[in-house]
């Protein structure tokens, strides 16, 4: 029993470390567009998001139940070593994609890790295939598409309703709306992603016969998971914030408001019915929808393509790492210790690599280079020319050229009037 108690303690600590990485990995979901448009300063934005993530952790336990008693069959001989190996796979994949600045899914990294470790240690009997299809794979495909289409429609409607007013008149109101919608996304993130760590810890307690099967997470589990994800959120995943805010498309306040509102709606609806979907995929889909929805906007499809590749690889990659960790952890105490040491060394190496080109709140809105206008963007521009007087009406390639040279992009308040624009282009 002492061995099991010690091992469960290790699993709980590892789960909270994953929750911490989930927090800074997913800060961009709520705050990337708010920071990129200047609606809130970077530090204020992540602080507000951290508080609301903590609050959201107390609002629901439906997703936690999906994790603790849905994806993995807790009665099929799942041991704490299996959960530990699954968490190691999820943490390492989170850090790899963070280093690359790719907003991949922390949720799917966790699912992949648990599934991979279970398949190696227990076999197919330990995995609930129906639950994976219905509550993981289908939402993974549908949620970003739904969020993207809804945001595209909302963005076009927003610009149409404000077409009679200058951007300077509407920017302030939209930025206030962005703050409110970003707060809603942060709250929704707490109701969904914080629950996943609660579910993992509860699963570990069930495997150690500490709590009964099908139990709700104890209060101390809810508090610790909420605090861990809030702390990670406050530290800010600046690399991914840069990608979400500047790397996919150049977000203006109306787009940011539409993207965050659409994403929050999808996340809250899924939390209510217990779908453990990826908030990262939802928010990324919403940002792409916002880019398509604004006439003349440049959507950087190569960046979007890299994101989709990361989404597809997340489940198998995390599962592969977790499977290897499970093989080692199954060798006993020495195996568990070896997995822990290797995981710490790998995390340290990733952190050292990140210090070569650090990204923080002081340079998060700087983009060193952008992709040139591609065939898809050029085709969209040809049928949907930008409205006069907006930043998108600059000569083709000007935005990309400015970004490539390091020139700061104009904010909505600095957008030239039609007369000024014509004088600068002569």
UniProtKB/TrEMBL annotation:
Q: Which locations, inside or outside the cell, does it occupy?
A: Membrane
**Which terms under GO biological process does the entry name?**
phosphate ion transmembrane transport
UniProt keywords, alphabetically = Membrane, Phosphate transport, Transmembrane, Transmembrane helix, Transport
Transport as a keyword? yes
UniProt feature, compositional bias: Low complexity: 389-426
A molecular function (GO) held by this record is: phosphate transmembrane transporter activity
Query: Main site of residence?
Result: membrane
Q: How does it sit in the membrane?
A: Multi-pass membrane protein
Q: Which GO terms describe its cellular component?
A: membrane
Q: Which domain of life is it from?
A: Bacteria
Q: Where is this region: Disordered?
A: 385-426
What stretch or stretches form a coiled coil here? none
- List, alphabetically, the Pfam families matched: PHO4 (PF01384)
Which family does this protein fall into? Belongs to the inorganic phosphate transporter (PiT) (TC 2.A.20) family.
Which PANTHER family does the UniProt entry name for this protein? LOW-AFFINITY INORGANIC PHOSPHATE TRANSPORTER-RELATED, PHOSPHATE TRANSPORTER
Protein name from the UniProt record: Phosphate transporter
**Species assigned in the record:** Streptomyces malaysiensis subsp. samsunensis
Phylogenetic placement of the source organism: Bacteria, Bacillati, Actinomycetota, Actinomycetes, Kitasatosporales
């Amino acid at each position: 029993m002492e061995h099991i108690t010690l091992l469960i303690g290790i699993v709980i600590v590892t789960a909270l470390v994953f929750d911490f990485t989930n927090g800074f990995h997913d800060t961009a979901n709520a705050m990337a567009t708010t920071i990129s448009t200047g609606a809130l300063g970077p530090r204020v934005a992540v602080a507000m998001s951290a508080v609301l993530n903590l609050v959201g952790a107390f609002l629901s336990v439906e997703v936690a139940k999906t994790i603790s008693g849905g994806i993995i069959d807790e009665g099929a001989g799942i041991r704490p070593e299996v959960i530990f190996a699954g968490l190691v796979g999820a943490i390492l994949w989170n850090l790899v994609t963070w280093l690359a600045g790719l907003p991949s899914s922390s949720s799917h990294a966790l699912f992949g890790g648990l599934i991979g470790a279970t398949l190696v240690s227990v076999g197919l009997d330990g995995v609930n295939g129906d639950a994976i299809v219905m509550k993981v794979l289908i939402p993974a495909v549908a949620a970003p598409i739904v969020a993207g289409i809804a945001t595209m429609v909302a963005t076009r409607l927003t610009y149409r309703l404000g077409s009679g007013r200058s951007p300077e008149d509407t920017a302030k109101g939209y930025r206030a709306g962005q703050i409110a919608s970003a707060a809603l996304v942060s709250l929704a993130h707490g109701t969904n992603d914080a629950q996943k760590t609660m579910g993992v810890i509860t699963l570990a307690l069930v495997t150690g016969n500490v709590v009964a099967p099908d139990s709700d997470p104890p209060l101390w589990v809810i508090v610790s998971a909420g605090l861990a994800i809030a702390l990670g959120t406050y530290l800010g995943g600046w690399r991914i914030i840069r990608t979400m805010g500047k790397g996919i498309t150049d977000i203006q306040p109306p787009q940011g408001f539409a993207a965050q509102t659409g994403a929050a709606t999808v996340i809250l609806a899924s939390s209510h019915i217990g779908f453990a979907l990826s908030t990262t995929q939802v928010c990324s889909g919403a940002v792409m929808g916002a880019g398509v929805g604004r006439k003349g906007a440049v959507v950087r499809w190569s960046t979007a393509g890299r994101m989709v590749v990361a989404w597809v690889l997340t489940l198998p990659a995390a599962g592969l790492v977790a499977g290897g960790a499970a093989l080692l952890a199954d060798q006993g105490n020495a195996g568990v210790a070896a997995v822990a040491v290797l995981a710490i060394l790998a995390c340290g190496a990733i952190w050292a690599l990140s210090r070569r080109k650090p990204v923080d709140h002081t340079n998060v809105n700087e983009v060193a280079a952008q992709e040139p206008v591609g065939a898809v963007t050029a085709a969209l521009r040809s049928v949907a020319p930008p409205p006069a007087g907006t930043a998108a009406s600059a000569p083709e390639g000007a935005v990309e050229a400015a970004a490539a040279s390091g020139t700061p992009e104009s904010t909505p308040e600095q957008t030239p009037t039609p007369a000024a624009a014509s004088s600068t282009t002569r």
